[in-house]
Design goal:
Elements: H1 4-25, H2 29-41, H3 44-58, H4 61-66, E1 68-76, E2 79-81, H5 84-88, H6 91-99, E3 102-114, E4 117-130, E5 133-148, E6 151-160
């Protein structure tokens, strides 16, 4: 609970940064792609986000769970899950089944590290077929990570499609 003011400040900072980034990147998306990929791959926080995504897409529940803080808060589809165990034993399995049939193209992905806190923002293009329904949509994701006992853990996720 002592980190709530830090997280609220970080979210406010993210909102300002994202609004400025959307203006700055509106006309130069092609030239910015290399920088965004590089920022993700060169930070340990970015690597944690990427490895979490890979574990979810591969259906590796144990590996995916290892990147989540025990008290992670996940917002998705108007619902909230308030712990890693709640997500792992509930919606994670549905996400894994869904993503097994989806191709994901990363449109943008950026990770910023601010001491022991980091945030990740991304946009993706999702295509495929799920239960006979054609999928062709864009998704957005924001994550907040915290360095806990020397490891980057995801403390908040917000997904929207």
């Amino acid at each position: 609970m002592k980190n709530i003011p830090i997280i609220i400040s970080l979210i406010s900072f993210m909102a300002l940064t994202l609004s400025n980034n959307s203006i700055a990147h509106a006309s130069d998306t092609e030239s910015s792609k290399g920088h965004e990929v590089l920022s993700v791959l060169t930070t340990d926080a970015g690597k944690a986000v990427t490895q979490f995504h890979q574990a979810i897409q591969a259906g590796n529940k144990k590996e995916a769970r290892s990147f989540l803080a025990d008290n992670v808060i996940i917002y998705e589809g108007g619902r909230v899950e308030r712990s890693a165990d709640e997500y792992a034993n509930h919606h994670m399995l549905a996400d894994m089944k869904y993503l097994a049939n989806i191709d994901i193209e990363i449109l943008e992905h950026e990770v910023k590290v601010l001491g022991s806190i980091a945030y990740s923002t991304s946009r993706t293009k999702l295509t495929g077929n799920v239960k006979g329904k054609k999928i062709n949509s864009e998704g957005m994701e924001s994550m907040i990570l915290q360095k806990i006992e020397g490891k980057w853990k995801i403390v908040h996720i917000h997904w929207s499609h």
